[in-house]
Amino acid sequence: MERVLINGRDARSHSIAWKILQTTKSEIELVFPAVNAGTAYLGVDLNIDPNDFERQIRWSKDNQVGLAFISSENQLNLGAVDQFKEAGILVFGPTQNIARLESSKIEGVRFNRDHGIPQPGFRSYTRPVDALAGVNSIDWPMVVKGDGLAGGKAVFVVGTDKQLARDRIRELVAGGYSRSGETGVVIQEKINGFEVSAQIITDGESIIYLPESQDHKKRFDDDYEGDNPNTGGKGAYAPVPQITPELRNCIQKSILEKAVQGMREEGHFFRGALYAGLMVTEDGPKVLEWNVRLGDPETQALMMLCQGDLLATMKACAAGRLNPNTLSFKEGFGVAVVLEALQSNRFVDIGRNIRGADENFGADVQVFHSGTVLDGDKVVTTGLGRILTVAAFGETLSRAISRAYSPLRQGSVSLPVQHYRDCIGQFGLIKRIKEGAYQ
User: Which Gene Ontology BP terms does the record give (predicted)?
Assistant: First the structure.
Protein backbone atom coordinates (compact mmCIF):
# COMPACT_ATOMS: atom_id res chain seq x y z
CA MET A 1 0.00 0.00 0.00
CA GLU A 2 1.26 3.45 -0.90
CA ARG A 3 1.70 5.90 1.95
CA VAL A 4 1.52 9.70 1.95
CA LEU A 5 3.42 11.63 4.61
CA ILE A 6 1.89 14.96 5.68
CA ASN A 7 4.17 17.10 7.81
CA GLY A 8 1.74 19.52 9.45
CA ARG A 9 -0.67 19.45 12.37
CA ASP A 10 -2.70 22.60 11.76
CA ALA A 11 -6.23 22.97 10.39
CA ARG A 12 -4.86 23.53 6.88
CA SER A 13 -3.12 20.14 6.98
CA HIS A 14 -6.24 18.50 8.42
CA SER A 15 -8.39 19.89 5.60
CA ILE A 16 -5.93 18.72 2.93
CA ALA A 17 -5.69 15.26 4.45
CA TRP A 18 -9.50 15.06 4.54
CA LYS A 19 -9.76 16.11 0.90
CA ILE A 20 -7.04 13.68 -0.23
CA LEU A 21 -8.91 10.78 1.33
CA GLN A 22 -12.18 12.02 -0.13
CA THR A 23 -10.93 12.38 -3.71
CA THR A 24 -8.12 9.90 -4.29
CA LYS A 25 -8.67 6.96 -6.60
CA SER A 26 -5.75 5.03 -5.09
CA GLU A 27 -5.52 2.82 -2.03
CA ILE A 28 -3.37 4.85 0.35
CA GLU A 29 -2.53 5.34 4.00
CA LEU A 30 -1.79 8.76 5.47
CA VAL A 31 1.03 9.11 7.98
CA PHE A 32 1.90 12.14 10.09
CA PRO A 33 5.11 12.88 12.00
CA ALA A 34 2.79 14.42 14.61
CA VAL A 35 -0.99 14.66 14.82
CA ASN A 36 -3.74 16.74 16.32
CA ALA A 37 -7.04 15.29 17.52
CA GLY A 38 -8.49 15.55 14.00
CA THR A 39 -5.69 14.05 11.92
CA ALA A 40 -5.28 11.29 14.51
CA TYR A 41 -8.42 9.69 13.06
CA LEU A 42 -7.25 10.01 9.44
CA GLY A 43 -3.92 8.21 9.55
CA VAL A 44 -0.94 6.93 11.52
CA ASP A 45 0.90 9.02 14.12
CA LEU A 46 4.64 8.39 13.65
CA ASN A 47 5.46 10.31 16.84
CA ILE A 48 8.47 11.98 15.23
CA ASP A 49 9.53 15.58 15.81
CA PRO A 50 8.23 17.57 12.78
CA ASN A 51 11.72 19.06 12.39
CA ASP A 52 13.51 15.71 12.49
CA PHE A 53 13.65 15.22 8.74
CA GLU A 54 16.31 12.51 8.95
CA ARG A 55 14.00 10.16 10.89
CA GLN A 56 11.05 11.00 8.64
CA ILE A 57 13.10 10.23 5.54
CA ARG A 58 14.40 6.98 6.99
CA TRP A 59 10.85 5.87 7.84
CA SER A 60 9.60 6.96 4.41
CA LYS A 61 12.24 4.95 2.55
CA ASP A 62 11.45 1.84 4.59
CA ASN A 63 7.67 2.13 4.25
CA GLN A 64 6.75 2.93 0.63
CA VAL A 65 5.99 6.65 1.01
CA GLY A 66 4.98 7.83 -2.47
CA LEU A 67 4.69 11.52 -1.61
CA ALA A 68 5.76 13.80 1.20
CA PHE A 69 3.76 16.99 1.65
CA ILE A 70 5.45 19.74 3.68
CA SER A 71 2.61 21.95 4.86
CA SER A 72 4.23 24.47 7.19
CA GLU A 73 6.45 27.46 6.43
CA ASN A 74 8.70 26.52 9.37
CA GLN A 75 9.74 23.18 7.89
CA LEU A 76 10.03 24.66 4.39
CA ASN A 77 12.37 27.34 5.75
CA LEU A 78 14.48 24.66 7.44
CA GLY A 79 15.03 22.87 4.12
CA ALA A 80 12.75 19.86 4.51
CA VAL A 81 12.07 19.66 0.77
CA ASP A 82 15.78 19.71 -0.10
CA GLN A 83 16.46 16.78 2.23
CA PHE A 84 13.56 14.66 0.95
CA LYS A 85 14.62 15.35 -2.64
CA GLU A 86 18.21 14.38 -1.92
CA ALA A 87 16.91 11.09 -0.51
CA GLY A 88 14.97 10.41 -3.71
CA ILE A 89 11.50 10.86 -2.19
CA LEU A 90 8.85 12.71 -4.19
CA VAL A 91 7.96 15.86 -2.23
CA PHE A 92 5.45 18.68 -2.70
CA GLY A 93 6.83 22.09 -1.77
CA PRO A 94 9.60 24.54 -2.69
CA THR A 95 13.26 24.19 -1.82
CA GLN A 96 14.86 26.23 0.95
CA ASN A 97 16.33 28.93 -1.28
CA ILE A 98 12.92 29.68 -2.83
CA ALA A 99 11.26 29.51 0.59
CA ARG A 100 13.10 32.72 1.47
CA LEU A 101 10.46 34.51 -0.56
CA GLU A 102 8.29 34.04 2.55
CA SER A 103 10.84 33.69 5.35
CA SER A 104 12.48 37.03 4.48
CA LYS A 105 10.35 40.11 3.79
CA ILE A 106 13.50 41.78 2.46
CA GLU A 107 13.90 39.02 -0.10
CA GLY A 108 10.23 39.31 -1.05
CA VAL A 109 10.34 43.03 -1.85
CA ARG A 110 13.66 42.55 -3.67
CA PHE A 111 12.10 39.84 -5.83
CA ASN A 112 9.11 42.04 -6.72
CA ARG A 113 11.35 44.97 -7.62
CA ASP A 114 13.67 42.92 -9.81
CA HIS A 115 10.83 41.31 -11.77
CA GLY A 116 8.50 44.26 -12.19
CA ILE A 117 5.77 42.90 -9.91
CA PRO A 118 3.59 45.70 -8.53
CA GLN A 119 3.97 46.39 -4.80
CA PRO A 120 3.71 49.37 -2.41
CA GLY A 121 6.65 51.71 -1.92
CA PHE A 122 9.16 50.33 0.56
CA ARG A 123 12.48 50.70 2.33
CA SER A 124 14.36 47.63 3.57
CA TYR A 125 17.03 47.48 6.25
CA THR A 126 19.18 44.56 7.33
CA ARG A 127 20.02 46.35 10.59
CA PRO A 128 17.33 47.75 12.93
CA VAL A 129 19.54 50.72 13.78
CA ASP A 130 19.42 51.80 10.13
CA ALA A 131 15.63 51.43 10.10
CA LEU A 132 15.35 53.67 13.15
CA ALA A 133 17.33 56.36 11.33
CA GLY A 134 15.54 55.78 8.02
CA VAL A 135 12.14 56.61 9.48
CA ASN A 136 13.09 60.29 9.50
CA SER A 137 13.26 60.47 5.70
CA ILE A 138 9.92 58.74 5.01
CA ASP A 139 6.94 60.99 4.34
CA TRP A 140 4.26 58.42 3.41
CA PRO A 141 2.02 56.40 5.78
CA MET A 142 4.00 53.44 7.05
CA VAL A 143 3.57 49.75 7.84
CA VAL A 144 6.48 48.29 9.83
CA LYS A 145 7.27 44.61 9.20
CA GLY A 146 9.80 42.28 10.74
CA ASP A 147 11.94 40.44 8.22
CA GLY A 148 11.49 36.84 9.37
CA LEU A 149 8.70 34.33 9.93
CA ALA A 150 6.33 35.49 12.65
CA GLY A 151 2.99 33.84 11.95
CA GLY A 152 1.55 37.08 10.53
CA LYS A 153 2.07 38.92 13.82
CA ALA A 154 5.15 41.13 13.17
CA VAL A 155 3.18 43.71 11.17
CA PHE A 156 2.33 47.14 12.59
CA VAL A 157 0.36 49.90 10.91
CA VAL A 158 1.81 53.19 12.22
CA GLY A 159 0.70 55.72 9.61
CA THR A 160 2.77 58.91 9.64
CA ASP A 161 3.65 58.69 13.35
CA LYS A 162 7.44 58.50 13.22
CA GLN A 163 7.85 57.96 16.96
CA LEU A 164 5.38 55.07 16.88
CA ALA A 165 7.30 53.60 13.94
CA ARG A 166 10.53 53.72 15.96
CA ASP A 167 8.79 52.18 18.97
CA ARG A 168 7.49 49.32 16.81
CA ILE A 169 10.95 48.70 15.33
CA ARG A 170 12.38 48.43 18.85
CA GLU A 171 9.50 46.12 19.78
CA LEU A 172 10.33 43.85 16.85
CA VAL A 173 13.91 43.53 18.07
CA ALA A 174 13.07 43.10 21.75
CA GLY A 175 10.05 40.86 21.23
CA GLY A 176 11.83 38.13 19.31
CA TYR A 177 9.01 37.85 16.75
CA SER A 178 11.13 36.16 14.10
CA ARG A 179 11.08 32.35 14.21
CA SER A 180 13.62 32.17 11.40
CA GLY A 181 16.36 34.32 12.95
CA GLU A 182 16.19 37.44 10.78
CA THR A 183 16.39 40.83 12.50
CA GLY A 184 15.91 43.08 9.47
CA VAL A 185 13.02 45.48 8.95
CA VAL A 186 10.87 46.42 5.97
CA ILE A 187 8.95 49.69 6.07
CA GLN A 188 6.19 49.55 3.50
CA GLU A 189 3.88 52.27 2.27
CA LYS A 190 0.37 51.89 3.67
CA ILE A 191 -2.00 51.66 0.72
CA ASN A 192 -5.78 51.57 0.57
CA GLY A 193 -8.11 49.03 -1.02
CA PHE A 194 -9.29 45.54 -0.15
CA GLU A 195 -7.17 42.47 0.50
CA VAL A 196 -7.30 39.29 -1.57
CA SER A 197 -5.39 36.01 -1.32
CA ALA A 198 -4.42 34.66 -4.76
CA GLN A 199 -3.00 31.13 -4.80
CA ILE A 200 -1.68 28.75 -7.42
CA ILE A 201 -0.28 25.26 -7.68
CA THR A 202 2.64 25.17 -10.10
CA ASP A 203 5.51 22.95 -11.18
CA GLY A 204 7.45 25.96 -12.42
CA GLU A 205 5.80 25.96 -15.84
CA SER A 206 2.16 24.82 -15.75
CA ILE A 207 -0.20 26.59 -13.34
CA ILE A 208 -3.49 25.73 -11.64
CA TYR A 209 -5.22 28.90 -10.46
CA LEU A 210 -7.16 28.42 -7.23
CA PRO A 211 -10.25 30.57 -6.57
CA GLU A 212 -9.34 33.87 -4.98
CA SER A 213 -10.16 34.13 -1.29
CA GLN A 214 -10.24 36.79 1.40
CA ASP A 215 -8.58 36.31 4.77
CA HIS A 216 -9.49 38.24 7.94
CA LYS A 217 -6.23 38.90 9.77
CA LYS A 218 -7.30 41.19 12.60
CA ARG A 219 -8.24 39.47 15.85
CA PHE A 220 -11.49 41.37 16.37
CA ASP A 221 -14.25 42.60 14.07
CA ASP A 222 -13.49 45.66 11.96
CA ASP A 223 -15.61 47.99 14.10
CA TYR A 224 -13.70 47.08 17.29
CA GLU A 225 -12.40 50.32 18.81
CA GLY A 226 -9.59 48.97 21.00
CA ASP A 227 -6.23 47.43 20.13
CA ASN A 228 -6.79 45.06 17.20
CA PRO A 229 -3.59 43.07 16.53
CA ASN A 230 -2.81 40.95 13.50
CA THR A 231 -3.13 37.18 13.79
CA GLY A 232 -2.36 34.27 11.51
CA GLY A 233 -5.94 34.60 10.23
CA LYS A 234 -9.38 34.45 11.89
CA GLY A 235 -11.43 33.30 8.92
CA ALA A 236 -11.73 33.29 5.15
CA TYR A 237 -14.15 32.78 2.29
CA ALA A 238 -13.86 31.89 -1.39
CA PRO A 239 -14.42 32.86 -4.08
CA VAL A 240 -14.50 36.66 -3.72
CA PRO A 241 -17.46 38.18 -5.62
CA GLN A 242 -15.54 41.42 -6.17
CA ILE A 243 -13.05 39.66 -8.46
CA THR A 244 -14.25 40.43 -11.97
CA PRO A 245 -12.85 38.58 -15.00
CA GLU A 246 -10.76 41.67 -15.81
CA LEU A 247 -9.29 41.86 -12.32
CA ARG A 248 -8.60 38.12 -12.27
CA ASN A 249 -6.72 38.37 -15.56
CA CYS A 250 -4.71 41.30 -14.17
CA ILE A 251 -3.74 39.31 -11.06
CA GLN A 252 -2.74 36.27 -13.08
CA LYS A 253 -0.74 38.08 -15.75
CA SER A 254 0.93 40.91 -13.83
CA ILE A 255 1.64 39.04 -10.58
CA LEU A 256 1.34 35.25 -10.51
CA GLU A 257 2.73 34.42 -13.93
CA LYS A 258 5.47 37.04 -13.53
CA ALA A 259 6.46 35.43 -10.22
CA VAL A 260 6.74 31.93 -11.71
CA GLN A 261 8.73 33.31 -14.65
CA GLY A 262 10.91 35.36 -12.30
CA MET A 263 11.84 32.29 -10.30
CA ARG A 264 12.75 30.44 -13.49
CA GLU A 265 14.96 33.38 -14.50
CA GLU A 266 16.73 33.07 -11.15
CA GLY A 267 17.28 29.35 -11.77
CA HIS A 268 14.46 27.91 -9.65
CA PHE A 269 11.56 25.71 -10.72
CA PHE A 270 8.97 26.25 -8.01
CA ARG A 271 7.06 23.01 -7.35
CA GLY A 272 4.29 23.48 -4.84
CA ALA A 273 1.74 26.10 -3.81
CA LEU A 274 2.42 29.83 -4.09
CA TYR A 275 0.34 32.44 -2.26
CA ALA A 276 0.22 36.16 -3.03
CA GLY A 277 -1.30 38.41 -0.37
CA LEU A 278 -2.64 41.35 -2.37
CA MET A 279 -4.14 44.75 -1.85
CA VAL A 280 -6.50 45.68 -4.67
CA THR A 281 -6.17 49.44 -5.09
CA GLU A 282 -7.61 51.93 -7.57
CA ASP A 283 -4.33 51.49 -9.48
CA GLY A 284 -4.66 47.72 -9.58
CA PRO A 285 -3.52 44.81 -7.37
CA LYS A 286 -0.22 45.07 -5.47
CA VAL A 287 1.69 42.41 -3.54
CA LEU A 288 1.84 42.85 0.23
CA GLU A 289 3.44 39.47 0.99
CA TRP A 290 4.37 36.09 -0.42
CA ASN A 291 3.80 32.67 1.13
CA VAL A 292 5.40 29.59 -0.36
CA ARG A 293 2.62 27.25 0.79
CA LEU A 294 -1.15 27.20 0.97
CA GLY A 295 -2.73 29.78 3.25
CA ASP A 296 -4.41 29.09 6.57
CA PRO A 297 -7.41 29.58 6.92
CA GLU A 298 -7.95 30.12 3.17
CA THR A 299 -7.23 26.45 2.43
CA GLN A 300 -10.00 25.27 4.75
CA ALA A 301 -12.52 27.32 2.74
CA LEU A 302 -11.08 26.14 -0.59
CA MET A 303 -11.18 22.46 0.37
CA MET A 304 -14.97 22.76 0.68
CA LEU A 305 -14.99 23.58 -3.07
CA CYS A 306 -12.18 21.36 -4.36
CA GLN A 307 -12.98 18.61 -6.87
CA GLY A 308 -10.74 16.19 -8.71
CA ASP A 309 -7.99 13.94 -7.41
CA LEU A 310 -5.95 16.22 -5.12
CA LEU A 311 -3.28 13.62 -4.40
CA ALA A 312 -2.71 12.89 -8.10
CA THR A 313 -2.43 16.62 -8.74
CA MET A 314 0.15 17.08 -5.98
CA LYS A 315 2.21 14.11 -7.17
CA ALA A 316 2.20 15.36 -10.77
CA CYS A 317 3.24 18.81 -9.57
CA ALA A 318 6.10 17.42 -7.49
CA ALA A 319 7.28 15.38 -10.48
CA GLY A 320 7.19 18.37 -12.86
CA ARG A 321 4.27 16.99 -14.89
CA LEU A 322 1.38 19.17 -13.71
CA ASN A 323 -1.79 19.06 -15.82
CA PRO A 324 -3.82 22.25 -15.23
CA ASN A 325 -7.06 20.37 -15.94
CA THR A 326 -6.78 17.77 -13.16
CA LEU A 327 -8.25 19.96 -10.41
CA SER A 328 -11.49 21.93 -10.44
CA PHE A 329 -13.71 23.78 -7.97
CA LYS A 330 -17.46 23.46 -7.79
CA GLU A 331 -19.88 26.36 -8.07
CA GLY A 332 -20.76 27.91 -4.75
CA PHE A 333 -18.82 29.28 -1.79
CA GLY A 334 -16.62 28.03 1.02
CA VAL A 335 -16.45 29.84 4.36
CA ALA A 336 -14.04 29.09 7.22
CA VAL A 337 -14.39 30.55 10.73
CA VAL A 338 -11.53 30.14 13.21
CA LEU A 339 -12.26 29.43 16.86
CA GLU A 340 -9.50 30.80 19.07
CA ALA A 341 -8.70 30.06 22.72
CA LEU A 342 -8.08 33.15 24.82
CA GLN A 343 -6.32 33.62 28.12
CA SER A 344 -8.50 33.44 31.24
CA ASN A 345 -7.67 34.87 34.67
CA ARG A 346 -4.01 35.31 33.69
CA PHE A 347 -3.41 31.63 33.09
CA VAL A 348 -3.43 29.58 29.92
CA ASP A 349 -6.17 27.03 29.55
CA ILE A 350 -4.39 23.82 28.55
CA GLY A 351 -6.11 20.45 28.51
CA ARG A 352 -9.61 21.91 28.62
CA ASN A 353 -12.41 19.93 27.01
CA ILE A 354 -13.72 21.08 23.63
CA ARG A 355 -17.39 20.65 22.91
CA GLY A 356 -18.42 19.33 19.49
CA ALA A 357 -14.95 19.00 17.95
CA ASP A 358 -15.72 15.50 16.68
CA GLU A 359 -19.41 16.00 15.90
CA ASN A 360 -20.83 15.17 12.46
CA PHE A 361 -22.64 18.23 11.07
CA GLY A 362 -23.25 16.78 7.61
CA ALA A 363 -21.32 16.85 4.34
CA ASP A 364 -21.51 20.64 3.97
CA VAL A 365 -19.92 21.45 7.35
CA GLN A 366 -16.52 20.24 8.55
CA VAL A 367 -14.56 20.93 11.73
CA PHE A 368 -10.80 21.06 11.12
CA HIS A 369 -8.38 20.84 14.03
CA SER A 370 -5.29 22.84 14.90
CA GLY A 371 -4.52 23.32 18.60
CA THR A 372 -6.06 20.05 19.79
CA VAL A 373 -4.91 16.71 21.16
CA LEU A 374 -6.61 13.52 22.26
CA ASP A 375 -6.72 12.82 25.99
CA GLY A 376 -8.12 9.32 26.04
CA ASP A 377 -11.36 9.68 24.11
CA LYS A 378 -11.65 13.40 24.81
CA VAL A 379 -10.58 16.27 22.55
CA VAL A 380 -8.74 18.94 24.57
CA THR A 381 -6.88 22.18 23.90
CA THR A 382 -3.11 22.44 23.67
CA GLY A 383 -2.92 26.12 24.67
CA LEU A 384 -3.80 29.52 23.31
CA GLY A 385 -4.40 30.56 19.72
CA ARG A 386 -6.25 28.89 16.87
CA ILE A 387 -7.90 25.68 18.06
CA LEU A 388 -10.52 24.77 15.43
CA THR A 389 -11.82 25.95 12.07
CA VAL A 390 -15.47 25.42 11.22
CA ALA A 391 -15.73 25.31 7.41
CA ALA A 392 -18.87 25.11 5.30
CA PHE A 393 -20.05 24.96 1.70
CA GLY A 394 -23.05 26.87 0.43
CA GLU A 395 -24.68 27.36 -2.95
CA THR A 396 -24.64 31.08 -2.10
CA LEU A 397 -22.25 33.06 0.09
CA SER A 398 -25.06 33.83 2.54
CA ARG A 399 -25.85 30.13 2.93
CA ALA A 400 -22.18 29.20 3.40
CA ILE A 401 -21.81 31.88 6.09
CA SER A 402 -24.93 30.67 7.88
CA ARG A 403 -23.77 27.04 7.84
CA ALA A 404 -20.29 27.87 9.11
CA TYR A 405 -21.57 29.98 11.99
CA SER A 406 -24.45 27.74 13.01
CA PRO A 407 -22.44 25.28 15.20
CA LEU A 408 -20.67 28.20 16.89
CA ARG A 409 -23.70 30.38 17.55
CA GLN A 410 -25.74 27.46 18.80
CA GLY A 411 -22.94 26.36 21.12
CA SER A 412 -22.59 22.99 19.41
CA VAL A 413 -18.87 23.72 19.05
CA SER A 414 -17.28 25.71 21.87
CA LEU A 415 -14.27 26.23 24.14
CA PRO A 416 -14.21 27.22 27.81
CA VAL A 417 -12.71 30.64 26.96
CA GLN A 418 -13.12 31.42 23.30
CA HIS A 419 -13.34 34.03 20.58
CA TYR A 420 -14.31 34.10 16.93
CA ARG A 421 -14.92 36.97 14.55
CA ASP A 422 -18.56 37.56 13.74
CA CYS A 423 -18.11 39.13 10.29
CA ILE A 424 -16.39 36.52 8.10
CA GLY A 425 -17.65 36.85 4.52
CA GLN A 426 -19.68 40.02 5.04
CA PHE A 427 -17.46 42.07 2.74
CA GLY A 428 -18.37 39.72 -0.10
CA LEU A 429 -22.06 40.49 0.41
CA ILE A 430 -21.91 44.27 0.40
CA LYS A 431 -19.31 45.59 -2.02
CA ARG A 432 -18.95 45.28 -5.78
CA ILE A 433 -16.47 46.54 -8.36
CA LYS A 434 -17.61 48.29 -11.50
CA GLU A 435 -17.58 46.04 -14.53
CA GLY A 436 -14.69 46.76 -16.86
CA ALA A 437 -12.30 48.01 -14.18
CA TYR A 438 -8.66 46.78 -14.32
CA GLN A 439 -8.76 46.05 -18.04
Answer: 'de novo' IMP biosynthetic process; purine nucleobase biosynthetic process
